[in-house]
Records
---
Amino acid sequence: MSTTQSERLRELLEPLVTSQGLDLEEIAVDSVGRKRVLRVVVDSDSGADLDAIADVSRALSAKLDETNAMGEDAYDLEVGTPGAERPLTEHRHFVRATDRLVKFQLTEGGELVGRILTVDDEGLDVEVPGVKGRKATHRRLAFPEIDKARVQVEFNRKDKKDKKEEEEA
């Protein structure tokens, strides 16, 4: 997809997404066999439930049909949210990942895995899990120190309620 088409689609669709209380995270047009697929990724601070995605999908579909922005050829519209292991690229992504485990690629080389505790305009505070029985440590990362960051999926994580119940027992 040309940058011009991407920019036109973003300009056309972003106000609709924003009016639904969501952020437009990504737009991509891909060819799948003979079909074209327009993928729109949306999110918000509180997440996007299925009803919100259905509402914005209907609004986007109507706008695309009305303006013929995708041309005459058939295409499929897919609206969804970022995946579980989404890359963090914007300040709002880090804020939304507070209390999540994140793998950081550092600009100076190396990587760090830690849980985001707080985020401000300059960077974030991270809790680095202890290894082999050691206590967790805290570290401050400024945004310029972070080359890449990606949320990690945790299957066995106990939430705060579970930890509190264990401490009381």
---
Amino acid sequence: MVATRFAVAIHILLLLATEPGGQATSGRLAESVGTNPVVIRRLAGQLARAGLIRIRRGPGGAELARPAGEITLADIWQAMRRNGLPLLPIHRGSGRGDAVGRGAPALLREVFDAAETALEARLAGVTVADLSARIGAVQPT
């Protein structure tokens, strides 16, 4: 679920970075994303609480809170994550029984945490401006 919210949040920020001010209503953003305006408002609230966007009620909608070149994908990732919950959780019921059951959770947590750290490091190297500059060159899948 966090991956989907993350992708939609990036989409929102790309629209805010590329479209003229005053057009970023939840309806307009929802149309581009292909979802309901309520979903956009919920995610926009998270982005606003993280200090990534500013929201104005009524005409005008939302805008970036700082330049697109200063907003990394890691910033967006952190805004969309639920604090304290790992990206890759360990299955319930492990940690008891035989040697594998007792040892697997710690081994998996070590590998999963390293993967998440690598993901965050990669996301920190990409800004909304980087993606915005490439948006016209991308071929639809």
